[in-house]
Design brief:
binds S-adenosylmethionine; Rossmann fold; alpha/beta; 23% strand; 8 strands; binds prephenic acid; 246 residues; single chain
């Protein structure tokens, strides 16, 4: 890999005031390590994206990766599909993420048609697409903004198109939710995060990453017009859904 990646130590020292989490230069520099150690099943979800595209995307179809960060979704597709099989557009609001994603995709898959736009998925002028990936991004939008974005993605999808939506989730039942969150913290401990890192990150994400329940996600997808959606992956309080446009 051309992009140096550092171990995530952002919340490892006591901070007087824990600022709200943001995708700044410091997060970008350690992002591959952070997401791998913080999202249960992240690698498994990425590994399936190419297989889903092979089944659902017509040859040469267009794919969006919204909130693409360093372009991991694009790399996953390029690993499974030939250059003529798809065109990829990653979109991210963070200039530091966009710069690194462009460099990584150019270095790692020079033969593929990969574009990365700096933009806001809430106001993007979407082009018709066969597949849209929204991996751990919707959770960062204000809850009242989520319906409108999903409705616009439904409109952008071509007939037969699919939306892959991966999210941190909340369980419907409070007791179930507490168990999942406790085991999620065990997962983080097992991946080398300290108590201080876990609690400071939790504070930084408060009101920034607001998870929905799976029920809320499926209901929203139906409201936007998707006739069918299912949860195809769940590991603790992280899940991935797929929604089909008729
Ligand atoms: C957890 S990361 C996504 C991880 C990435 N999809 C992956 O698979 O590696 C969330 C990303 O969403 C981006 N983001 C948040 N709000 C956004 C918005 N309104 N428009 C575009 N990108 C946004 C952030 O800058 C960040 O890079
Ligand atoms: O660390 C956490 O508590 C998380 O929720 C993980 C999570 C995410 O789900 O997006 C939060 C922020 C970073 O983008 C990477 C991973």
């Amino acid at each position: 890999m051309s992009d140096a990646s550092y171990r995530d130590a952002i919340f490892s020292t006591p901070l007087d005031r824990v600022a709200s989490f943001s995708f700044d230069e410091r997060v970008v520099a350690c992002f591959p390590d952070m997401i791998r150690r913080s999202v249960p099943g992240y690698g498994q979800i990425l590994a399936m994206l190419g297989l889903i595209a092979r089944r659902h995307l017509r040859h040469g179809g267009h794919v969006y990766d919204l909130g693409c960060s360093l372009g991991a979704g694009g790399l996953a597709l390029a690993g499974r599909l030939s250059p003529d099989a798809f065109r990829y557009t990653g979109v991210d609001l963070s200039p530091a993420m966009v710069a690194r994603a462009r460099q990584t995709l150019a270095d790692e898959c020079p033969e593929h048609a990969m574009t990365v736009l700096e933009g806001d998925i809430r106001i993007l002028d979407y082009r018709p697409s066969g597949m849209i990936m929204l991996n751990f991004t919707l959770q960062f939008l204000a809850p009242e903004e989520r319906d409108a974005v999903i409705a616009r993605l439904y409109d952008a999808l071509e007939p037969g198109g699919v939306l892959v939506l991966s999210e941190k989730i909340k369980a419907d039942d409070e007791q179930d939710n507490a168990w999942l969150v406790e085991r999620y913290h065990d997962f983080k401990r097992a991946n080398g995060y300290s108590e201080l890192e876990i609690s400071q990150k939790r504070n930084a994400l408060e009101n920034v990453l607001v998870p929905d329940t799976l029920t809320a996600h499926h209901t929203r997808l139906a409201r936007a017009g998707f006739p069918r959606s299912l949860t195809w992956f769940q590991h603790l309080n992280f899940a991935s859904l797929i929604a089909f446009k008729a």
